[in-house]
Amino acid sequence: MLKLIFSILLLIQTTILSGQEIKIGFQDSIQSKVLNETRKIIIKLPKDYCNSDKSYPVLYRLDGDADLFIETLAVINRLAYAEEIIPEMIVVMIENTNRNRDMMPVNTSFFQSEPGAENFRNFIESELIPHINNSYRTTNEKILCRQSLSAIFTLYYFLTSPDSFDSFIACSGGFPDCEEYFMNLTKNMLQTKQTSIKKIFLTHGLKDFLDPNGLIEKQLSNFNQLIETDENIVCEFKIYKDEGHVPFQSLYHGLRFLYE
């Protein structure tokens, strides 16, 4: 009898839940002239957006998909509402079409196709950001964040167009087979002193399977030391001793670094 009652209650609960529509965001798209393709984006507005006239900063995150979207919202909700460290913000996640093309600015031994990072950056600057600013109440504050291959793009974006965003979070990035290219970008960028404070947060896991010899850790450490020679660049390089590729806490610690 207890098993029967439990089964009935479980069935009722499942039925009720399946009848509920839980909305945590919505999908939009842009017909990009720069990329000559339709790009889908996932958007989450702050919970009080429709009941206020406030404007909000925007977190742009690459490699947008449903799983990463939920993970991102969980971190932001904790920091904004539970810990009250960061402001409420609009989240914009850019879905991929051709990830390798978009993220790579230069050919390497593992990427021989035509690099598309410059076009992807131009898409973000000239099409995506204006679309978001025209469609929603935004402040001027913008953050760019991503991981792994798209962290390479985030570093490229920081070095070639630092004024486009206020802050950058690059998780498990590095310069695979392209360190000289990135060092040249870094030196060129540092020749022009930044006129406003720029923050960049880097992470790396010592158990990263892509860095068995510690080369990426050394690259990021050298990069960190080099860019901090500009007094208007504030950088933190956080190493996780017990984490592998793309430490889970990266976004949480990155946002705390930006706002504390």
How would you explain this protein's 3D organization?
The chain is α/β, with parallel strands linked by helices and 260 residues long. The chain has one domain: Rossmann fold (3-Layer(aba) Sandwich). It is 40% helix and 22% strand. It is built from eight helices and eight strands; from the N terminus they run αβββαβααβαβαβαβα. It has helices at residues 2-18, 66-82, 99-103, 117-135, 149-160, 179-190, 215-227, 250-259; strands spanning 26-32, 37-44, 56-61, 90-94, 138-147, 167-171, 198-205, 233-240. The chain has an eight-stranded mixed beta sheet with strand order 1-2-4-3-5-6-7-8, sandwiched between helices. The longest helix is centred in the middle third of the chain and has 19 residues, at 117-135. The relative contact order is 0.12. The model has no long low-confidence stretch (mean pLDDT 91).
Oligomer state equals single chain
Give the helices and strands as they follow along the chain: HEEEHEHHEHEHEHEH
- Overall tally of domains: 1
What can be said about the biggest beta sheet? Answer: 8 strands, mixed
CATH architecture: 3-Layer(aba) Sandwich
For the biggest β-sheet, the strand order reads: 1-2-4-3-5-6-7-8
- Cα distance, first to last residue? 56 Å
What's the count of strands? 8
Number of H/I helices? 8
What would you report as the Rg, rounded to the nearest angstrom? Answer: 20 Å
CATH class: Alpha Beta
